[in-house]
Amino acid sequence: MWALRVSHSAVVDVWRERERALRRAGHRVDLVSAASWTEGGRRVSLELRRDESVCAARTFGSHPALFLYDPRPLWRALGRPVDVIDIHEEPYSLATAEVLALRWLRRRRAPYLVYSAQNLDKRHPLPFRWLERAVLRHAGGVHVCNDAAGRIVERKGFPGRARTIDLGTDLTLFTPSPTYAGSPDEAPVVGFVGRLEAPPGAEVLLRAVSLQGDLRCRLAGDGPDRHRLEELAESLDVTDRVEFMGALAPAQLPGFYRSLDVLAVPSLTTPSWVEQFGRVALEAMACGVPVVVSDSGALPEVVGDAALVVPEGDAAALAKAVAEVVGDPGVAGHLREAGLARAAATSWDVVAAQHEALYRAVTKTWDGSAAVP
After folding, report:
1. What are the residue ranges of CATH 3.40.50.2000 in the chain?
2. In the β-sheet with 216-220, what is the strand arrangement from edge to edge?
């Protein structure tokens, strides 16, 4: 199998594990990535590992749906006789339109797939609505990271069945401590990982901490809401129990997770956004850390029965769930074991095998118009 993948997010090293796993399985994978991109509030430049082949393309624009690639790397990549083209961009994005326009100019008949995480049924303005419908109608396959996104692309015109494939977890990086699980501190510690910005899920966690007098909190992340959250911690009289750690590098995250007794993912839904996956929950699970999540968007689907789920925005319910985990070794132990099993099901090797199966199904049924059933 020879696949061409196009993904601006592949600029992040760990998000190229899918391609590495496919190559380990014996497939050829050409990858076009953004040369640099803003991820998690910081500018990331493509840094290749030894013997890693990735084509870096300049990008014009910064919005995920409104940017374009330098067409020259795409033109060269599309000149090769690949079996399948996997565009890891939303179907309504300008980048998707660009890749497909170049595919047409190159007169390539290889089937293409697109990706979607969009789990809010948005009515995009013209011409994006037309673009989305046309892209989906002629796609050989669509892969999504949550079931709601799959239902939406099918309703909007994809004639086949969208495949839900988890975003992968690096089980070589995120591993449980061989000797100890949880915080070495006397007081239990709940953690948070994410941008400190609206919607303010971290605010819900701070209010939950204020309801549990013996609970400490560590927040890993930065953003425009940090100063306001620091003021909130002061007004709630929890400053001495809350630590703002700033943004952490990916290599620092496993140690951070292992320093916790429980990770909270208190995501909040807004009119324009709902949680699409919740990768940090699986990373913590892979480190053997119990997890509590809100019921925003795809979070309950992603964690399954391996985490406690509370109503979003309910600080009292979050405080109660965290207290249950840190106060009951049986609950904590069950969540650790269930979390490790759930994280194992999202390893990059598993994710790559699911992509391989999708690619084979698409190429088997492709006649220039047929989508994978």
Report:
1. 2-168+347-365, 189-344
2. 242-246, 216-220, 189-193, 262-265, 291-294, 308-310
Alpha helices (H) along 42-127: 71-78, 94-105
Class of domain 189-344 (CATH, top level): alpha beta
Whether this prediction's pTM lies above 0.90 is answered by yes
DSSP 27: -
For residue 288, which of 172, 174, 170, 194 has the smallest C-alpha distance? Answer: 174
Query: Sheet harboring 141-144: ordered strands across?
Result: 55-57, 28-34, 2-7, 84-87, 112-116, 141-144, 163-164
What is the rounded CA–CA span in Å between residue 126 and residue 132? Answer: 10
User: What's the number of CA atoms in the CB half-sphere (13 Å) around residue 330?
Assistant: 0
CA 167/CA 17 separation, integer angstroms: 10
What is the distance between the alpha carbons of residues 284 and 371, in angstroms, rounded to a whole number?
36
Higher pLDDT, 116 or 182: 116
H or E element, residue 323: helix 315-327
Which pLDDT tens digit goes with each residue over 9-63?
Answer: 999 999 999 999 999 999 999 999 999 999 877 899 999 998 888 999 999 999 9
User: How confident is the model at residue 370, as a pLDDT?
Assistant: 59
Q: How far apart are CA 302 and CA 346, in angstroms?
A: 10
* CATH superfamily, with its number, for domain 2-168+347-365: Glycogen Phosphorylase B; (3.40.50.2000)
183 pLDDT tier (thresholds 50, 70, 90): low
